[in-house]
């Protein structure tokens, strides 16, 4: 029936159904933050780390929140065989994946190129996405979320990282730009975030809700998490390709 006037209330937006979410590099830092936040939303979380003990620790934290819908797995993004085994193990746990978060990336600092170990960011992102794509295509709402960095943007020199980190992030950004148009016809959204250096208070500690988030403050993990959730909760005709952030420091 067509409304006769403008007073009718708009339909209430439904809460999103629980998702099955794979997060790489989830044993610490922002990967852990994302895993805890997805779990709090009621999503099933499949988290990985190079060190299985680290992944198990985060899984135990999630269980402590009252959720048993969590799986800890080992994945070394620098080792193609490990990535393959990781994907195979996921396939034994679930028949589909709704969200893949490519978060795993080794932070590199310093200026001595001779001693740099090139991060496995690009290779890891390629292989994880490739091996999990069949499971993503079985979802009715597949999203690939790439946590890149402002270091992956042309002309950015303000992130306190090693030159090799910049190179790896530029490679990951280029990959994301190619994947987005390739996967869109299949209904897979590719969402990339390019944050500057940001603070990551413990999501289980008191600082999570009290860290200042004003216009002149450093970007927080809290705000980054909300960007991720905003993007994946949009209707399927809304393809948010990237989030770019003003760097204030």
Record the SSE blueprint.
Layout: E1 20-23, H1 29-40, E2 44-49, H2 52-64, E3 70-74, H3 80-93, E4 99-102, H4 121-136, E5 143-147, H5 163-183, E6 189-194, H6 207-210, H7 221-232, E7 242-244
Parallel strand pairs: 1-2, 1-4, 2-3, 4-5, 5-6, 6-7
In short:
The chain has seven helices and seven strands. The chain has helices at residues 29-40, 52-64, 80-93, 121-136, 163-183, 207-210, 221-232, and strands at 20-23, 44-49, 70-74, 99-102, 143-147, 189-194, 242-244.
Shape type? globular
Gyration radius, to the nearest Å? 19 Å
**Topology pattern, helix = H, strand = E:** EHEHEHEHEHEHHE
Kindly state the mean pLDDT as a whole number? 85
Strand order of the largest sheet: 3-2-1-4-5-6-7
Describe this structure in words.
- Helix 4 links the parallel strand 4 and strand 5.
- The protein is of the alpha/beta class and 249 residues long.
- Helix 3 packs parallel to helix 4 and helix 4 packs parallel to helix 5.
- The protein has a seven-stranded parallel sheet, sandwiched between helices.
- About 4% of the residues have low confidence.
- The longest helix is centred in the C-terminal third of the chain and has 21 residues.
- It is globular.
Which terms summarize this structure?
7-stranded parallel sheet; 249 residues; 7 strands; globular; alpha/beta
